Amino acid sequence: MRTTTNTTMIACTILALIAALVYLLIGTNIASIPTLGVEQAPVAIWHFAAGGYLAGGLLVLWRRRWLWMVGLGANTFVISIFFLAYHQEPEMMLSAAGLTTKTAQVLLEVGLIYLIVAGRRGAQPTRQIQPSPIELTQPR
């Protein structure tokens, strides 16, 4: 279980770093999105997204369940906004940058859900069996 959790944390970090890299490439116009102009999404948004995924990817390694929950919420928000904003623009949805970031983000979502559920299972206190009063009074 511990090895699976460690592997999942590393995978989540790598996925977040991939999303950060693609957002940085979009922000510096190395990777382009066909129908997106600067007036629709200023360069600062791409750099902010890259910084958020960079920080979030590194915070995954900190092993704090509440941070995983915050990351899950933020990532869900980003994915939802993307699909709500561009659901009628297939050029945007099927662009290399769009597919790369959304694939990484959806896989990150799955990994964070696993970490949250596994962390909850691991955090439950073990129940100790108390001896019955009869066992205490009987001589051995």
Order of helices and strands: HHHHHH
Shape, principal axes of CA atoms? elongated
**DSSP summary: helix tally:** 6
User: What gap, in angstroms, lies between the N and C termini?
Assistant: 39 Å
Cα gyration radius (Å): 22 Å
Tell how many strands the DSSP assignment holds: 0
Look at the helices and sheets and give the structural class: mainly alpha
Mean pLDDT across all amino acids: 86
Low-confidence segments, given as residue ranges, are none
Beta-strand percentage range: under 5%
What does the largest sheet look like? none
Helix content: over 70%
What number of domains?
1
Give structural notes:
The chain is mainly alpha-helical. It has one domain. The protein has helices at 2-27, 43-59, 65-86, 90-93, 96-123, 133-137. The two termini are 39 Å apart. The mean pLDDT is 86.
In short:
With 140 residues, the chain is mainly alpha-helical. It has one domain (2-137). It is built from 6 helices and no strands.
Topology record:
Layout: H1 2-27, H2 43-59, H3 65-86, H4 90-93, H5 96-123, H6 133-137
Helix pairs in contact: 1-2, 1-5, 3-5
Question: Characteristics of this structure?
Answer:
mainly alpha; 6 helices; elongated
